[in-house]
Specification:
342 residues, methyltransferase, globular, alpha/beta, single chain, 3-stranded antiparallel β-sheet, 7-stranded mixed β-sheet
């Protein structure tokens, strides 16, 4: 049964956030999360296996339960027989947030502390993020740093694209990944689509990053790069598939519409368009919290989370057909340009 916390209880957890992170980090390091996810497992068995004191472990597991991350079955007369089971996927989720290569660790490098305790001034426009963050990136170094950070967050998109690989690419030959970063996503697509060639379309400064990905992933003849700026020139043609992955949310509605219209014009008749974003849901808002907070101090970017139907309606209005939303960690919105339409 799902239980919604009261505002008071939620505030208590938020205030104790660093302590909650410490608990989860410890559970990950001990290997406890693996045991809990394979449960149900008894408290006394866990204490013996990990060499810890049962009563202290009982309270430790209360901390995890308070976060809604495990279930507990406690008999009346034997605390050692209390059994636990973690929610599915907990170990991977904790690793993604506090593990050695965690996205949140990467985000913490950004100068968010310039706003901390000064949000009121920032809301009035008196405090902004300084040159420690540039959007869009202005130098080759800033571009490389930005694309590296974006690649770390591609896991959900990669998982969903892989899940639907046979449906997406079985009859496709050339993909243009617009704003495709350092080519990481395109390389993962090519792993499961042997008849496909992919080109990343991005600012010319990104070319060396894509070249490095191509060499590292072994797609020497299939992963290419096309330099350009979609604000200054039309998208290149000759492709029967085109993707926007974590691109459209960075821009106002009018810009998103213009880019989808460009895609329609660039695609071959019968071409596939794929849009993958963090659509607006309670989960996505929570996982987007850092950027919502950080970008309070940055006027050049909004990073808008939109509902999926914004994109389904937009695709239909532009002229695409067979619009569909494919399920996954991040949903995919796909559609096709009608055959015989240039």
């Amino acid at each position: 049964m799902t239980v919604t916390l009261s505002p008071r209880a939620l505030m208590s957890l938020l205030v104790n956030g660093p302590k909650a992170t410490d608990v989860l980090h410890t559970a990950l390091d001990l290997g406890l999360l693996d045991a809990l996810e394979a449960g149900p497992v008894r408290l006394d068995a866990l204490a013996t296996r990990f060499g810890v004191l049962p009563l202290r472990l009982y309270k430790f597991l209360d901390c995890i339960e308070s976060l809604g991350l495990l279930t507990r079955d406690e008999p009346d007369d034997d605390i050692g027989a209390t059994s636990y089971r973690a929610v599915p996927g907990l170990r991977d989720a904790v690793n993604a947030v506090v593990g050695p290569d965690a996205t949140e660790r990467d985000r913490d490098r950004y100068p968010w502390r310039q706003l901390h305790g000064r949000l009121a001034e920032s809301l009035r426009g008196e405090v902004s993020i300084d040159d420690g963050f540039a959007w869009p990136p202005k130098t080759a170094e800033q571009t490389a740093e930005f694309e590296r950070s974006m690649a770390l967050g591609l896991g959900p998109a990669i998982e969903t694209v892989r899940r639907h690989s046979s449906r997406l690419w079985s009859d496709r030959h050339r993909l243009l990944d617009v704003g495709g970063g350092d080519g990481s996503l395109a390389a993962h697509i090519l792993d499961t689509a042997p008849d496909l060639r992919a080109d990343v379309y991005n600012l010319p400064a990104v070319a060396p990053l894509v070249a490095a990905t191509r060499d590292a992933r072994g797609h020497a003849d299939r992963l290419g790069f096309v330099g350009g700026d979609f604000f200054r020139e039309p998208l290149p043609g000759g492709y029967d598939a085109l993707s926007f992955v974590r691109v459209l949310h960075d821009w106002p509605n009018a810009v998103a519409r213009e880019l989808v219209q460009q895609a329609y014009a660039a695609l071959e008749p019968g071409g596939l368009i794929l849009i993958c974003e963090e659509f607006r849901t309670p989960d996505r808002l929570a996982m987007q919290f850092f950027w919502s907070y950080f970008l309070i101090g940055v006027d050049s970017s909004v990073s808008r989370l939109r509902e999926a139907d914004f994109y389904t309606k937009l695709l239909t209005e532009v002229g695409f057909h067979d619009v569909a939303v494919l399920p996954g960690t991040w949903e995919l919105v796909i559609a096709y340009k009608p055959s015989g339409v240039e």
